[in-house]
Write a structure and sequence with these properties.
This protein is mostly helical. The chain is built from 6 helices and no strands. It is flat and about 55 Å long.
């Protein structure tokens, strides 16, 4: 186990903290997006700029609230060492890799190609950090 010799507590690896902080930032962005879209859903200029109706924007705001809740739960789970959060993030990263590959195959030009490569690289890093890194394995065994 990764322990602090002075206190005997299990220490969270830096890579897990990094992933958790990124998840918390993503949750905050989703919360802000939900509020902004919800407040502006009736604004005709906002609707024209997005090309969406008020009802579609309400659905988007609700979707962002759900994304916020899932991201906040995953961040909290990762930071506290719960295996459920670890598996959830692993599944999401697997879906992200599959979606990126699909976009790279079907839209193999410019930004889609580079975005797909970046998304796959990030997802592989997260999967490595959660499931292959020995310190992370010890963290989830000791904390969870």
């Amino acid at each position: 186990k990764v322990t602090d010799s002075s206190s005997g507590l299990v220490r969270r690896p830096g890579v897990i903290s990094f992933i958790g902080i990124l998840l918390w930032i993503s949750a905050a962005v989703a919360a802000v997006a939900a509020v902004v879209v919800f407040i502006n859903r009736g604004n005709e200029d906002f609707q024209a700029a997005t090309g969406q109706s008020a009802d579609a924007l309400l659905i988007l705001a609700i979707s962002e609230v759900i994304a916020f809740a899932l991201l906040a739960w995953a961040a909290s789970s990762i930071m506290s060492g719960r295996r459920g959060g670890r598996m959830f993030v692993g599944v999401v990263m697997g879906i992200r890799i599959a979606a990126s590959l699909w976009f790279m195959i079907t839209h193999h030009q410019g930004g889609f190609l580079y975005s797909g490569i970046a998304n796959i690289a990030i997802a592989l890093f997260v999967l490595w950090a959660l499931f292959v890194n020995d310190k992370s394995e010890e963290w989830f065994e000791g904390a969870g």
